[in-house]
Amino acid sequence: MTASKSLRALREAIVLEHLEAENEGEFEGAVGVFDHARWEVMATGEVIEGRAAVVGYYERVVAAGPRLSSRVVSLHHAEGAVIVELRLDGDGVGGRSGVFFLFDGARLVGKRVYGGWEEKSRHPVAGMAAPLLSDGNRT
Known about the structure:
CATH class: Alpha Beta
Structural class: alpha+beta
Helix content: 25-40%
Low-confidence stretches: 118-139
């Protein structure tokens, strides 16, 4: 395996480990794969920086409900990123999200989330920014 292929395989394994931990609700594990935990939520402009802040973000999202799970639809490699399209499913919500996992070499240093879940019941989730609906409007 060439160095390029082995780096791609390593990056992909890190991303898949992160996504699996998220789906299992193991947020310390999800954050643990990052060399530096930094989330950028593009729909709201929110930046969450640091391990404790990101775990706190997960806890707020789970407390606000509903519980979501994700499934990889497609995965692509770029120079400094792994780009993943996800299908999101949960009670009363669903949607697709594009996520850029940002790397410095083999080190995972950030996560940039585009899009997200759509509310099927159109009720706001307490304490969280209203999601974009498929028509581009907010709830």
